Amino acid sequence: MVPETVPAVEVDRQIRDHFAIEDKVILVIETAHTDGIFNTSTLKRVVEITTRLLAIDGVDARNIISLATEKSGRRGPGRGNFPTFLDPVPATREAIAQTR
Description:
Layout: H1 7-19, H2 40-54, H3 93-99
């Protein structure tokens, strides 16, 4: 929205280049489900969309923040393995409540 000829635009570009700063990707999923996004179907959709975004050539995985990419803090099988919030996608009310 700001013309490229404005000096601040060039300064911003230089700072971004110097520090390798890129914009984050924000995706909002709206659902009419009574539990909001916290239902198995919508959470599977979050995983699907995240996977598709990560597959786009030129998209840096560090710029994708999702329940499907963020580590949950719980331990998974194997030493040092911390699965994401949606690995696996919760399928029971109890598991969904824990994810919430």
